[in-house]
Amino acid sequence: MPRTLATVDSAVRLLELFDADHTEWTLGALARRLAQPTSTVHEQLGTLTASGLLTRVGRGRYRLGWRLLKLSSALYGSVPWYAAAHDAMTALSRGTHLLAFVCVLEGQAADARVLCIARSVQGRDGPPVVGETQFELPVHATASGKLLLALRGWDPPANAPAFTPHTRRDPAAWASEAAAIRAARLAVSRDEWAVGSSGLAVPLLGAGGEVLAALGVSLPTPRLRERDALLRRLHDAAAEAAWTLGHRTPHGRGEGRRANI
């Protein structure tokens, strides 16, 4: 395992606590969450605030700083396929009125992570679904995670937690499901992360046919009865993005429509 600097690692863990559900933190709350002395966290906050990565608001409260926008702009600018993926996601959300997302697989087989790098809720209706604010998704219990794992030929983590009675953790069952996912180029999750929430995901392909990311939707489980219509929109959005990125097939933009699983 590569050597890491403890101070940098601590700063990263602190920054990762800021998300859509926790946009502000106090010194005391951060120290408790990180299980670190208040004096240590205070030093980290001072350094991060001085660098512009955090900003102090009110009395002893901290938010993410504007300097992060520069870093995020540079990141997305360095990913040539991001704009096409984002357009496909937005069109999918508008067409389905569901939470749509783009996810990528990071790390190696033993510590793979699925990161939601973009999501769109434009026009979303119906009850809330799991995953509306999370950045890292369960690799074994979401449609996007299962899709990316299967297409990479990796197995889920051996110690993967069971979130619901429907979470699949049996290696033999995964081998069969992974083969079906690879054949159909489609993954489905049903009540596996949270009862009442399900998902569909298909791959986003680059010019050479390589898998860049997963494009999908999260939906209330009862809406799986609309699966055929949703899959048509999913495949059309993914095919349009692939076409924009230069991927050509004998069947044109509609190539993404394959057998259901």
UniProtKB/TrEMBL annotation:
Keyword check for Transcription regulation: yes
InterPro entries associated with the record: GAF-like_dom_sf, HTH_MetabolicPath_Reg, Tscrpt_reg_IclR_C, Tscrpt_reg_IclR_N, WH-like_DNA-bd_sf, WH_DNA-bd_sf
Alphabetized PROSITE patterns for the sequence: HTH_ICLR, ICLR_ED
GO molecular function, one term: DNA-binding transcription factor activity
GO biological process: negative regulation of DNA-templated transcription
The IclR-ED domain, residue ranges: 67-251
Keywords associated with the record: DNA-binding, Transcription, Transcription regulation
Keyword Transcription: yes
Residues in HTH iclR-type domain copies: 5-66
Protein name in the entry: DNA-binding IclR family transcriptional regulator
Organism: Deinococcus budaensis
